């Protein structure tokens, strides 16, 4: 019955391939993020604060047109729009514009802004010195909030890129008070479990234990 | 290895030679016989083909005229989604595994598959997965309606509740495919007649061996993708949710990392089938056998590095588009080698046109048309226009229906007389062939024009300028759909009351070890492995025919 042993050893070895490939599918997630962050593809770039060095070179020979956009995810009730729609900037120089958020609801709303830069190759040269996307934002009922964004487009940006678009998308972070009990089930689509995990993980775990 | 295998043969001989199949229905539940399991796979695939085909009839009926006539858009979307999923995972893939189960042991002189119990299990998962997938149609909120590619967030945030059943069904189908593939690799590597070298193997065995490697590498990635969907939906992760730091485009990368090898999983065994049939009816050995093997292997390798050509419109940088475009177009080189070899095998052969040969020739011509439209889609700047239009629909139906499905039908006509010892009605089979081959072109060829004119895929209603071609396409669709009723009749009447055949070699000049066993193929075959001289004289790719 050596043949059976050969077959068994064989299928155990072969079985390792699917297990390895299953793991590989999950390994693609960090690989993908690393790849996107390093190359700036997909408009992600980094969401870290950029500290400008004291001596910055200005590229006076050209201007880059920057457009500002705001999008709202379904279920985020606060209205967001840029005060400045578009401006021409000198690469290397810091500019500050403002976004406005208006909470017309009667509830306190907490959200996290996620940025995106188009075209993708501009993402890694678009540096944010100050941004409301660095932290969560809380909006009181009826509040109108002006939020500054300071940014520098680095002169290293390829000369072929003349237009850059910065856009923000706000996502709601589930309210801790509402998060308990059955409230969550009554608002499908608004309270995304996904948010809890990535942005609110420790709180939500505790809440779940309490609930 | 030579001695061990023959020891086993004697052992099996002593135990199994005297009993045939068990009586009654439990035979099919408990069976570990490769022929029984092959039969089960093929009937399952045929059932799924008819169900998926019925869904296609709903789609074509709704598209017969512009406007919404028959079904709700949401139901229409469920039809397109389930039609795709059932045809890919329920019909084409199990049919090829069924052919592998029947034919591989017969073609390599092995008494059975290497892992018979696992073989039983990998089949019996399938009906449960299929029923679970179909049952979503009757659940609250309906079945999956997000297309067979189930892109996030359509399949996560906006999907019906039944999506969790869909995910579980995909997991089970994946398990079944992986076990089937492991079994095939173990069989081919360990159970070959001791005198059969790898390069002595028939091409069907070669293509299936390579396909099996694709399966064990690609299916787990699909399992990973649906697992991420599952945890995104139910356990608070956000792999594909931008709000939580994930990325929906990443879903497309993971899906197509599986999805592109998957399309070769569905076509490589078809290449194998055609490479068996054409030499038989051309009465010549297969031209360029070793180049066929290498072409198959290089298609398989390339299939893992071209996935993003499905995603040219996701905002890829120019360098990425260039790479994926050139890598994709490179696949046409080994594929062209294959088409060239089939044509050259027929060149100056003594051709006869029995039904399997008709289907094989139709495959070569029509699959090549599908290959050409694939080349057009692979060109990144042109794809901006073609993406998500009916041109894509026409392309993949030419490669999957007139490619994969035609090869399966050819294989059934070719080997069915061997399996059941009876001949099908040749006259009816010819009528079926011409009926199907004309109607399938009426069905799919106008879809090229619709796509080039800009008709999007996956829509229940369309602008009126697309009306005429849609009506022609629907008429072709109904004709092609009804041809399967005739096929059902031909197969059933062949099995029940076809003219009995005595000859071992059903086709005059067929070569291959499967034609050396009795007709119909006995329950147990190759208790003694065939010898070297027999293997060589039965080779369909060496020597004179």
Chain-wise SSE layout:
The complex is a heterodimer of chains A (211) and B (545).
Chain A: H1 2-39, E1 64-72, E2 79-82, E3 86-89, E4 94-102, E5 109-118, E6 126-130, E7 137-139, E8 144-153, E9 163-173, H2 183-186, H3 193-199, H4 201-210
Parallel strand pairs in A: 1-9
Antiparallel strand pairs in A: 1-3, 2-4, 4-8, 5-7, 5-9, 6-8
Chain B: H1 2-16, H2 26-30, H3 34-62, H4 73-108, H5 116-135, H6 163-190, H7 203-234, H8 248-265, H9 268-282, H10 289-302, H11 318-330, H12 332-346, H13 355-378, H14 380-386, H15 390-420, E1 422-423, H16 426-452, H17 467-497, E2 499-500, H18 532-537
Antiparallel strand pairs in B: 1-2
Helix pairs in contact in B: 3-4, 3-5, 3-17, 4-6, 4-15, 5-6, 6-7, 7-8, 7-9, 7-10, 9-12, 9-13, 9-15, 10-12, 12-13, 13-15, 13-16, 15-16, 16-17
Across the major sheet of chain B, the strand order is 1-2
Q: Largest interface, and how many residues on either side?
A: A-B, 48 and 52 residues
**What percentage of the residues of chain B does DSSP assign to strands (E)?**
under 5%
Enter the CATH topology name of the largest domain in chain A: Ctag/Cox11 (Pfam 04442)
Total of DSSP H or I helical runs spanning 4+ residues of chain B: 18
Q: Assembly type of the shown chains?
A: heterodimer
Estimate the mean pLDDT confidence of chain A.
Answer: 76
User: What is the distance, rounded to the nearest whole angstrom, between the alpha carbons of the first and last residues of chain B?
Assistant: 31 Å
Q: Which consecutive residue ranges of chain B, at least 5 long each, have pLDDT under 50?
A: 1-17
Q: In whole angstroms, how far apart are the ends of chain A?
A: 58 Å
Can you identify the CATH class of the largest domain in chain A?
Answer: Mainly Beta
The average pLDDT of chain B is: 92
Indicate the CATH architecture of the largest domain in chain A.
Sandwich
Q: Which structural class matches the secondary elements of chain B? A: mainly alpha
| Annotation field: number of helices of chain A | 4
């Amino acid at each position: 019955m050596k043949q059976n042993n050969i077959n068994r050893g064989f299928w155990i070895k072969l079985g390792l391939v699917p297990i390895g490939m299953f793991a590989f599918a999950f390994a693609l997630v960090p690989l993908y993020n690393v790849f996107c962050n390093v190359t700036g593809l997909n408009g992600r770039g980094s969401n870290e604060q950029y500290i400008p060095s004291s001596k910055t070179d200005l590229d006076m020979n050209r201007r880059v047109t920057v457009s500002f956009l705001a999008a709202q995810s379904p279920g985020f009730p606060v209205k967001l729009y840029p005060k400045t729609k578009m401006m021409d900037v000198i690469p290397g120089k810091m500019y500050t514009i403002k976004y406005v958020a208006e909470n017309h609801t009667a509830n306190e709303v907490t959200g996290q802004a996620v940025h995106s830069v188009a075209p993708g190759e501009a993402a890694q040269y678009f540096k944010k010195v100050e941004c409301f996307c660095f932290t969560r934002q809380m909006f009181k009922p009826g509040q109108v909030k002006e939020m500054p964004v300071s940014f520098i487009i680095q002169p290293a940006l390829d000369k072929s890129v003349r237009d850059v678009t910065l856009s923000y998308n706000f996502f709601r972070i589930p309210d801790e008070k509402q998060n308990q009990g059955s409230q969550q089930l009554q608002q499908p689509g608004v309270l995304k479990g996904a948010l809890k995990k990535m942005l609110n993980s420790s709180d939500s775990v505790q809440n779940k234990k309490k609930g | 290895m030579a001695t061990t295998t023959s020891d086993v043969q004697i052992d099996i001989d002593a135990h199994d030679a005297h009993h045939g199949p068990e009586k009654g229905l439990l035979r099919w539940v408990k069976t570990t016989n490769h022929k029984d399991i092959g039969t089960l796979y093929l009937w399952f695939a045929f059932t799924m083909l008819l169900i998926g085909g019925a869904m296609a009839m709903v789609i074509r009926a709704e598209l017969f005229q512009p406007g919404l006539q028959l079904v709700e858009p949401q139901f229409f979307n469920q039809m397109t989604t389930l039609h795709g999923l059932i045809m890919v995972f329920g019909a084409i893939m199990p049919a090829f595994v069924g052919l592998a189960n029947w034919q591989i042991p017969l073609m390599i002189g092995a008494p059975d598959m290497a892992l018979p119990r696992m073989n039983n299990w990998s089949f019996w998962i399938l009906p449960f997965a299929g029923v679970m997938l179909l049952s979503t149609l009757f659940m609250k909120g309906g079945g999956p309606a997000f297309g067979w590619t189930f892109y996030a967030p359509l399949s996560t945030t906006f999907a019906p509740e039944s999506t969790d059943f869909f995910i579980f069904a995909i997991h089970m189908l994946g398990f079944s495919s992986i076990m089937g593939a492991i079994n095939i690799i173990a069989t081919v590597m360990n159970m070959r007649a001791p005198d059969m070298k790898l390069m002595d193997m028939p091409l069907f065995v070669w293509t299936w061996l390579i396909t099996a490697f694709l399966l064990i590498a690609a299916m787990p990635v699909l399992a990973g993708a649906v697992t991420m969907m599952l945890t995104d939906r139910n356990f608070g992760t956000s792999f594909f949710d931008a709000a939580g730091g994930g990325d929906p485009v990443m879903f497309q990368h993971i899906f197509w990392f599986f999805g592109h090898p998957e399309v070769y999983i569905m076509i490589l065994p078809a290449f194998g089938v055609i490479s068996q049939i054409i030499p038989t009816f051309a009465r010549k050995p297969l031209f360029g056998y070793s180049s066929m093997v290498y072409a198959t292997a290089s298609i398989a390798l390339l299939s893992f590095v071209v996935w993003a050509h499905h995603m040219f419109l996701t905002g890829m940088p120019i360098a990425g588009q260039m790479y994926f475009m050139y890598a994709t177009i490179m696949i046409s080189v080994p594929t062209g080698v294959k088409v060239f070899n089939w044509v050259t095998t027929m060149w100056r052969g003594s051709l006869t046109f029995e039904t399997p040969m008709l289907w094989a020739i139709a495959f070569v011509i029509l699959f090549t048309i599908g290959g050409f439209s694939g080349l057009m889609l692979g060109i990144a700047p042109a794809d901006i226009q073609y993406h998500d239009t009916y041109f894509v629909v026409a392309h993949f139906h030419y490669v999957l229906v007139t490619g994969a499905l035609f090869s399966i039908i050819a294989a059934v006509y070719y080997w069915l007389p061997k399996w059941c010892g009876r001949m099908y009605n040749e006259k009816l089979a010819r009528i079926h062939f011409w009926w199907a081959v004309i109607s399938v072109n009426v069905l799919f060829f106008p879809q090229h024009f619709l796509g080039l004119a800009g008709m999007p895929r996956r829509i229940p209603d369309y602008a009126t300028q697309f009306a005429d071609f849609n009506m022609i396409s629907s008429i072709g669709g109904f004709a092609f759909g009804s041809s399967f009723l005739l096929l059902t009749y031909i197969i059933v009447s062949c099995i029940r009351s076809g003219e009995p055949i005595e000859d071992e070699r059903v086709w005059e000049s067929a070569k291959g070890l499967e034609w050396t066993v009795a007709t119909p193929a006995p329950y147990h075959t190759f208790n003694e492995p065939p010898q070297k001289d027999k293997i060589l004289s039965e080779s369909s790719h060496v020597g004179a025919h």
